């Protein structure tokens, strides 16, 4: 403050807070305690909003999703030892989804390492497998440099998780305020110089080749994923697709870059589209399990892939026909420019476009017939239709949808309609369950103009259900809809012959207390709870809670025998 003289001393906590704010960080998620409480308080005083959670795991999931939604590093703050270990869940999730995040953990006094200090752990080693960069500030003077390096590393190249270690003794060291300011300035300057050196550009010959391949393809397809969403490539994608008339297929989190209802959307004809396409331009999506590794039998063995990815390692790994390394938005700008030189368009009557559109219509009308029925006790389809219609009725800005659970997520992916970019957050590349509440909180603070609606299974909800208190504390506009079928995959699905042994009378490993009153949980903290079992009850709860835009839990009773074990992943269980 203005009272301090240049000679005034500041400690590591204050310097850390100032460094964070100087980089431009505005939000941090976490759990405080020894030795990071002062850091959190000083960060708040420096203008950083601190969202305090119950568990670092959820806070870490929040930080990762915040990074994805904003394109800036999401910050997780944890205590040492166990706090750091809990936080690794979030850090690894950021890494696997390629989302920018920095986990900052306090650690034990460097002078007591190896002697069994309070919450002692070699956190740098623990974080290594789950981070692209990790660093320890061994002295107060290293703090600004470590912050700037970790934060910048999270967002540069392929985004990912980074780790920053702040030992207790360093947080308590002091420097003069004037030295602190010059340390921050030189850390910022060093970064600018490095950024200038890193600039690269995509080779134009490759762009020409890519456009030639698309132009000469008989059955071209454009696939895009959450990397394209992260790159904010929606306008370039729209231009590409609408100028060429090529059908497109979003991955689950790519949904919304173009509306699911777009006439070129091949989602409802997915098997045909990927099974028969001869050239596939894949933008910001990995050819991993979610895309069947780009191999037969799902894909034709002759398909030629053009991959656009910011990571050259990813392109090396997949060995596509052609790889374009770079930011999806920038690469697509070049592609569109090249197309403009010699435009081409398949048109509605093109046999490939027609085949996809007919198949999609057929599949959609089959699903609509299922959805139209009011089945009570609820299956998955009836409530999902009602929720879809309620979300669509909100209009623009569209709510952020958070989705997890086996059947709930599978059915939801097909039924719920995404109309705007980056409005779907789900279990992602790892199929991580337990992300729901963290993602809701991240979405609510990152996108304050949107309502947040979570549609999740009871088991997914249970991982982080205590965070409903966090929703209430910050009064976030989040409506959590729990599909309650009494357990993982719903109730006891064992064959009677399987139920033997001394513990045969225990509840099945898949079951929870039947009829659990999850809606009462949020009421304990002053939020709004609803228990619904019929279409009218659900409609009225959705109507009321969407209008109120206040924390609410809608507990939807689902027939425990509806849905399938492991959802559509049964072959792996
Ligand atoms: P999805 O789950 O939607 O299929 P993935 O997470 O598998 O998507 O793939 C996302 C890909 O996007 C990653 O390989 C990542 O390197 C890449 N990526 C991240 N940021 C960008 C960007 N700005 N431009 C292009 N690709 C990006």
From TrEMBL:
GO CC field: peroxisome
Named cofactor requirement(s): thiamine diphosphate; Mg(2+)
Residue ranges of every copy of the Thiamine pyrophosphate enzyme N-terminal TPP-binding domain listed in the record: 12-125
BP terms from Gene Ontology: fatty acid alpha-oxidation
EC class of the enzyme, as a word: lyase
All copies of domain Thiamine pyrophosphate enzyme central, residue ranges: 207-333
GO molecular function: 2-hydroxyacyl-CoA lyase activity; magnesium ion binding; thiamine pyrophosphate binding
Highest taxon of source: Eukaryota
EC number: 4.1.2.63
Pfam families, A to Z: TPP_enzyme_C, TPP_enzyme_M, TPP_enzyme_N
Domain Thiamine pyrophosphate enzyme TPP-binding: 405-556
Catalysed reactions, as listed in the record: a 2-hydroxy-3-methyl fatty acyl-CoA = a 2-methyl-branched fatty aldehyde + formyl-CoA; an (R)-2-hydroxy-long-chain-fatty acyl-CoA = a long-chain fatty aldehyde + formyl-CoA
Alphabetical UniProt keywords: Lyase, Magnesium, Metal-binding, Thiamine pyrophosphate
Claim: Plastid is one of the keywords in the record: no
Gene3D superfamilies: 3.40.50.970, TPP-binding domain
Function statement: Catalyzes a carbon-carbon cleavage reaction; cleaves a 2-hydroxy-3-methylacyl-CoA into formyl-CoA and a 2-methyl-branched fatty aldehyde.
Similarity-based family: Belongs to the TPP enzyme family.
Subunit composition and interactions: Homotetramer.
PANTHER family, sorted: 2-HYDROXYACYL-COA LYASE, 2-HYDROXYACYL-COA LYASE 1
Name this polypeptide is given: 2-hydroxyacyl-CoA lyase
Source organism of the structure: Dovyalis caffra
């Amino acid at each position: 403050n203005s009272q301090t003289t240049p000679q005034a001393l500041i400690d590591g906590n204050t310097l850390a807070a100032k460094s964070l704010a100087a980089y431009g960080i505005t939000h941090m998620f976490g759990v405080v305690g020894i030795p990071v409480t002062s850091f959190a308080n000083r960060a708040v005083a420096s203008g950083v909003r601190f969202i305090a959670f119950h568990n670092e795991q959820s806070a870490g999931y929040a930080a990762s999703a915040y990074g994805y939604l904003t394109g800036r590093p999401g910050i997780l703050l944890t205590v040492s030892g166990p706090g750091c270990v809990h936080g690794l869940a979030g850090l690894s999730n950021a890494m696997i989804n390629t989302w920018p995040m920095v986990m900052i953990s306090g650690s034990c006094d460097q002078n007591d390492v190896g002697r069994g200090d309070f919450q002692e752990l070699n956190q740098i080693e623990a974080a290594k497998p789950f981070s692209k960069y990790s660093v320890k500030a061994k002295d107060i003077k290293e703090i600004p440099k470590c912050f700037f390096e970790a934060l910048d590393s999270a967002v540069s190249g392929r985004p990912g998780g980074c780790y920053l270690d702040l030992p207790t003794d360093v947080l308590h060291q002091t420097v003069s305020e004037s030295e602190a300011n010059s340390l921050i300035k030189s850390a910022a300057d060093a970064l600018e110089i490095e950024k200038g050196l890193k600039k690269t550009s995509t080779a134009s010959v490759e762009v020409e080749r890519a456009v030639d391949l698309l132009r000469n393809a008989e059955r071209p397809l454009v696939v895009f994923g959450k990397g394209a969403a992260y790159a904010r490539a929606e306008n370039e994608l729209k231009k590409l697709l609408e100028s060429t008339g090529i059908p497109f297929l979003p991955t689950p989190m790519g949904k919304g870059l173009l509306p699911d209802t777009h006439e070129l959307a091949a989602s409802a004809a997915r098997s045909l589209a990927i099974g028969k396409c001869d050239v596939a331009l894949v933008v910001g999506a990995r050819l991993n399990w979610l895309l069947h590794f780009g191999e037969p039998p799902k894909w034709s063995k002759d398909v030629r892939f053009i991959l656009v990815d910011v990571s050259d390692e990813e392109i090396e790994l997949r060995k596509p026909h052609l790889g374009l390394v770079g930011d999806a938005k920038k690469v697509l700008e070049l592609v569109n420019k090249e197309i403009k030189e010699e435009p081409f368009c398949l048109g509605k009557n093109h046999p490939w476009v027609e085949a996809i559109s007919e198949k999609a219509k057929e599949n959609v009308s089959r699903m609509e017939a299922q959805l139209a029925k009011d089945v009570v006790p609820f299956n998955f389809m009836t409530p999902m239709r009602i929720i879809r219609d309620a979300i669509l009725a909100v209009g623009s800005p569209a709510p952020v949808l958070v989705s997890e659970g086996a059947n709930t997520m599978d059915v939801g992916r097909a039924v719920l309609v995404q109309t705007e970019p980056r409005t779907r957050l789900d279990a992602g590349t790892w199929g991580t369950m337990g992300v729901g509440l963290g993602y809701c909180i991240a979405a609510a603070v990152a996108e304050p103009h949107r309502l947040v609606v979570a549609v999740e299974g009871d088991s997914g909800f249970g991982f982080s259900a205590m965070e409903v208190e966090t929703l209430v504390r910050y009064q976030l506009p989040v409506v959590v809809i729990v599909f309650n079928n009494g357990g993982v995959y719903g109730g006891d699905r064992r064959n009677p012959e399987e139920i033997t042994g001394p513990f045969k009378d225990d509840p099945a490993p898949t079951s929870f207390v039947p009829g659990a009153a999850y809606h009462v949980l949020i009421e304990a903290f002053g939020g709004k709870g609803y228990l619904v079992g019929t279409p009218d009850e659900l409609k009225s709860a959705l109507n009321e809670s969407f209008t109120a835009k206040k924390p609410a839990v809608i507990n939807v009773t689902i027939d425990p025998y509806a849905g399938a074990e492991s959802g559509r992943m049964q072959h792996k269980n």
